[in-house]
Design goal:
Number of domains: 4
Number of strands: 16
Mean pLDDT: 79
Low-confidence stretches: 135-143, 173-229
Largest sheet: 9 strands, antiparallel
CATH architecture of the largest domain: Sandwich
Shape: extended
Order of helices and strands: HHHHHHHHEEEEEEEEEEEEEEEE
Helix content: 25-40%
């Protein structure tokens, strides 16, 4: 006999929405178990007692599942400074305070970096027009008295200036060199004429990012084994991601990036220069498994992340369809070591497969094994994830049919 609650998922059996907090889940569990606890049916019929026992077991099972399956938080690299936005905001502050010269200098610096940034060009044109000197003509004739007055006034000003200069020279003679340097440093204002030229200004997409480390130096793995001749196969499916309304993968966003499930797919977006953005989970069968996912990429790199020891220590297997390349590299803080890379024919959507056994990693793209590696520098870890690496271009990756299988 089928019970009326057999088709309910863990959230529905407890009466909570996906994304509920641990406190809300616990409160809902206590409420449900108090309703169907077998002790409350001591005087009921045998069928009612059996039903309450089965439902109480299902409630306990759901509570334990949700405690274990709470989505792991998204680990994102520190967001780099948006230098262009900072310059634009600084120029707006100068304009609001009436400092038009400073605003013009700041906008010119921004224009050297990105000539098309917002209304930068229009603001510069307006400021240059306002600050352009205009010829002033006058038909006023000065009388002899006015000329003499101006002449005597000029002599007086010159004498006062000379006297003031002498006083300053005597005062400067008594000041220490250190105090002078500090005063000059405190009052120094960069001149717009010494701003970096367009050829020396840093590219906005090459700005330093905590995760956009310098281009990795290719170092061949000393233990790389020859590629096998047969494709990667897996055993029983132990997990298949649900990227629908009840997805256990996180949905969140930050400054220039977002992750989330929609319509059976998981989408990660990142602006240019942000580096690695990912979401991860923990395998229910440990670190030995076969991971498989379909991915389509627009922009730079995207793929799988595994052996996630920490936010600064993990391995990634990525593809770049625009360049027809794949890469497997190991991150160690801000350094990356390339373990395998090459060129390959890629379609609009591609299937990536990774088999993890002990310290051996087998990599496959669209049923073609591209490399097999033996890694001793990093400990196997059951945590894995989906990753986008936006280096020079905005990047969007769409993932689907993510499965975990046992090793055959």
């Amino acid at each position: 006999m089928n019970d009326d609650f057999e088709q309910l998922d863990d959230y529905a059996i407890l009466g909570v929405q996906p994304g509920a907090t641990p406190a809300e889940i616990k409160q809902a569990y206590l409420k449900q178990i108090s309703i169907y606890h077998p002790d409350r049916f001591a005087g009921a019929s045998p069928d009612e007692q059996a039903y309450a026992a089965r439902r109480a077991r299902r409630i306990n099972q759901a509570y334990q599942n949700l405690r274990r399956r709470r989505p792991s938080p998204v680990i994102a690299t520190s967001t780099p400074r948006n230098y262009q936005a900072e310059l634009y905001a600084k120029a707006q502050e100068h304009l609001a305070a009436g400092r038009r010269l400073q605003a013009l200098a700041t906008l010119r610096e921004l224009q050297r970096i990105n000539p098309w940034y917002r209304d930068c060009a229009d603001l510069i044109a307006g400021l240059e027009a306002d600050l352009k000197p205009t010829a002033v003509s006058t038909s006023r004739t000065f009388s002899r008295r006015n000329v003499l007055t101006v002449a005597f006034g000029g002599v007086a000003v010159a004498l006062l200036g000379w006297f003031g200069w002498r006083q300053l020279q005597e005062a400067e003679a008594t000041r220490s060199p250190v105090a002078t340097a500090v005063a000059e440093e405190a009052t120094a204002v960069p001149s717009p004429t010494v701003a970096p030229s367009p050829t020396t200004a840093p590219s906005p997409t090459a700005a330093a990012s905590p995760t956009a480390a310098p281009s990795p130096t290719a170092v061949p793995s000393p233990t790389a084994a020859p590629s096998p001749t047969t494709g990667i196969t897996g055993g029983t499916v132990v997990y298949q991601a649900d990227f629908g309304p009840n997805s256990d993968w996180p949905i969140t966003n930050g400054n220039g990036w977002s992750v989330g499930a929609r319509d059976g797919r998981y989408i990660i977006q990142a602006n240019a220069g942000l580096g690695d953005i990912w979401a991860f989970q923990t395998s229910p069968i440990g670190s030995e498994m076969v991971i498989e996912v379909e991915v389509s990429v627009a922009g730079d790199w995207a793929g799988l992340m595994f052996w996630f020891n920490s936010p600064q220590r993990y391995i990634s297997f990525l593809i770049n369809p625009a360049q027809g390349q794949y890469r497997c590299d190991e991150r160690n803080n801000e350094q990356r070591s390339v373990l395998a890379e090459g060129t390959i024919s890629l379609a609009r959507s591609n299937r990536l497969t990774v088999r993890l056994t002990d310290q051996t990693i087998a990599l496959q793209i669209n049923d073609q094994v591209v490399d097999t590696l033996t890694i001793t520098s990093l400990n196997p870890d059951p945590r894995y994830g989906l990753l986008v690496r936006a280096e020079r271009n905005p990047t969007t990756a769409t993932f689907s049919t993510l499965t975990l299988r046992t090793i055959t």
